[in-house]
TrEMBL record:
This is DUF3574 domain-containing protein. InterPro entries: DUF3574. Residues 1-37 form the signal peptide. It holds the Pfam family DUF3574. It comes from Streptomyces paromomycinus. Keywords: Signal. It comes from the Bacteria.
Length: 168
């Protein structure tokens, strides 16, 4: 029977390869954040990239309030139309927040008081106001929510408040 000769390998050789692999991965992982930071600074001129201190966030402290208005009526009546909604904004929102607002079209769903899943076109109204005015603006926002629920027979108007830094 022919004999097959294999080169001898020491048991330490696989461990050495494993150690080299682990060391390579560690060095690669340690260098990734540095490379990422260097790429982020490519936009700045070379002379200022290293010397420029990190800036703080621009803007002043504001509150961002989003109100979510549904258009389906729980009583089964016709949905609130664009014309009706924009007339409501002109009559109730703009006088309380004359500095500006944003309205975005949306689509949502919820489970009503009877357990039925309602799917509807909706609107997101976004208000930005200085944090210092939150005490005086809060009642205005609640008046808007209450007026919409009464006028259009809605069960609720969702409200989301978030802190923001704003610069115009």
């Amino acid at each position: 029977m022919p004999t097959v000769s294999r080169p001898r390998t020491s048991p330490a050789r696989p461990r050495l390869r494993l150690a080299a692999l682990v060391l390579s991965a560690a060095l690669l992982g340690a260098g990734a954040p540095t490379a990422y930071a260097a790429l982020a600074e490519e936009d700045r001129p070379a002379a200022t990239a290293a010397a420029a201190p990190r800036k703080t966030v621009e803007g002043r402290p504001y509150i961002e309030t989003s109100l979510l208005f549904g258009t389906a009526r729980p009583d089964g009546g016709p949905p609130v139309t664009d014309k009706e909604f924009h007339a409501f904004v002109d009559e109730f929102v703009t006088p309380r927040f004359p500095d500006g607002l944003t309205v975005q079209d949306g689509y949502g769903q919820y489970r009503d008081a009877h357990g039925t899943i309602e799917r509807e076109r909706s609107y997101e109204l976004i208000l930005l106001y200085p944090t210092s005015q939150s005490g005086s603006d809060n009642p205005k926002i609640e008046q808007i929510r209450t007026a919409y629920m009464k006028r259009f027979g809605q069960e609720s108007v969702a409200r989301i408040d978030d802190r923001a830094r704003v610069d115009f």
